[in-house]
């Protein structure tokens, strides 16, 4: 088969390693692969997402907070891993995202960054760590880049966060914006409510254009009507990432515990579950407990 046809059939999720010669990385460190039009992307960069949008290709994003999920999702071909402030709910046991701190998120982000070879790792700036001023935001973002080895950061807010985004990008930090429903502002917004319906739809577009103008390389839209998100996606040059914003966004993101069934109970409407990991783990734990208590484990083959 012609190599170009083979590359096209595998598309973006091909795990085939390129045989192209590698170029030396500047300032030492691992060698970087030579550029090749037909070779799969070895490391997702922010400009790759814009190029994918221009080609009409969609990409995927999941949360990750640890080594093993990061490795699995990276191997699966997920382009972006978000070490979200949702760790507050899904790692630290809080009921909202508000209590999680920078010092709690830094080691989680570092674990994910050190465990991937291809995915773009996004460090999520927690509540209170960037809203006070552009300088506060820059200093917090710099910690994520230096101490946690994040590849970029994410913050919530539209036009009002433009000064923070501009300061970070001017200082060499790529920024992903987040508009629509912003969980850190849930008390101001009156709870988990769809944003951008009716007369407020124009505000979503204004926010999207403001963060793009400020320098954001992508924007998440959460709980936004699908027709509004589609209009924003068509008008922006930067890629959009939807969560509860319809299927016309350039990419989609979900919290992995929601998508793969580790979390139970009532789930948001926009969540689709692709597995039931809670039942798998529960059954395994019960089997282990039974064998330990009966003396079946450890057996002879598990004994030195």
From TrEMBL:
Region Disordered, residue ranges: 1-39
The prosthetic group or cofactor this protein requires is: Mg(2+)
Q: Where is the composition biased (Low complexity)?
A: 20-39
Cofactor: how and how many bound: Binds 1 Mg(2+) ion per subunit.
Matches recorded under InterPro entries: Pantoate_hydroxy_MeTrfase, Pyrv/PenolPyrv_kinase-like_dom, Pyrv_kinase-like_dom_sf
Positions annotated to bind 3-methyl-2-oxobutanoate = 85-86, 124, 154
Places the protein is found = Cytoplasm
Cellular component terms (Gene Ontology): cytoplasm
Annotated Mg(2+) binding lies at 85, 124, 156
Q: Which Pfam families match?
A: Pantoate_transf
Tell me the pathway.
Answer: Cofactor biosynthesis; (R)-pantothenate biosynthesis; (R)-pantoate from 3-methyl-2-oxobutanoate: step 1/2
An annotated GO BP = pantothenate biosynthetic process
What Gene Ontology molecular function terms does this protein carry? 3-methyl-2-oxobutanoate hydroxymethyltransferase activity; magnesium ion binding; methyltransferase activity
Q: Which CDD domains match?
A: KPHMT-like (cd06557)
What EC designation does it have?
2.1.2.11
* EC supergroup of this enzyme: transferase
Keywords noted in UniProt? Cytoplasm, Magnesium, Metal-binding, Methyltransferase, Pantothenate biosynthesis, Transferase
What this chain does, per the entry, is described as: Catalyzes the reversible reaction in which hydroxymethyl group from 5,10-methylenetetrahydrofolate is transferred onto alpha-ketoisovalerate to form ketopantoate.
Give the quaternary structure. Homodecamer; pentamer of dimers.
Q: What is this protein called?
A: 3-methyl-2-oxobutanoate hydroxymethyltransferase
Organism ancestry: Bacteria, Bacillati, Actinomycetota, Actinomycetes, Propionibacteriales
- Gene (UniProt): panB
């Amino acid at each position: 088969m012609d190599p170009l046809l083979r590359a096209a059939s595998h598309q973006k999720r091909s795990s085939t390693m390129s045989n192209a010669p590698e170029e030396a990385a500047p300032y030492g460190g691992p060698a970087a692969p030579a550029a090749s039009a037909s070779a799969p992307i070895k490391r997702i960069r922010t400009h790759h997402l814009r190029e994918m949008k221009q080609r009409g290709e969609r990409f995927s994003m999941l949360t990750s907070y640890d080594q093993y999920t990061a490795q699995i999702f990276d191997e699966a071909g997920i382009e972006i891993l978000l070490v979200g402030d949702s760790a507050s709910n899904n790692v630290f046991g809080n009921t909202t995202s508000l209590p999680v701190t920078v010092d709690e998120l830094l080691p989680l982000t570092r674990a994910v960054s050190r465990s991937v070879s291809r995915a773009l790792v996004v460090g999520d700036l927690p509540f209170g760590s960037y809203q006070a001023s552009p300088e506060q935001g820059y200093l917090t973002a710099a910690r994520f880049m230096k101490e946690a080895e994040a590849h970029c950061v994410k913050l919530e807010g539209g036009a009002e966060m433009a000064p923070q985004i501009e300061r970070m990008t001017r200082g060499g930090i790529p920024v992903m914006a987040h508009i629509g429903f912003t969980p850190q502002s849930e008390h101001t917004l009156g709870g988990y409510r769809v944003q951008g319906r009716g007369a407020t739809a124009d505000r979503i577009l204004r926010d999207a254009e403001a963060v793009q103008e400020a320098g954001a390389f992508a924007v998440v839209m959460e709980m936004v009507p699908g027709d509004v998100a589609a209009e924003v996606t068509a008008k922006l040059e930067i890629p959009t990432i939807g969560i509860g914003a319809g299927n016309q966004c350039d990419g989609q993101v979900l919290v992995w515990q929601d998508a793969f069934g580790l979390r139970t109970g009532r789930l948001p409407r926009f969540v689709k579950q692709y597995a039931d990991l809670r039942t798998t783990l529960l059954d395994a734990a019960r089997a282990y407990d039974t064998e330990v208590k009966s003396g079946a484990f450890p057996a002879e083959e598990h004994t030195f």
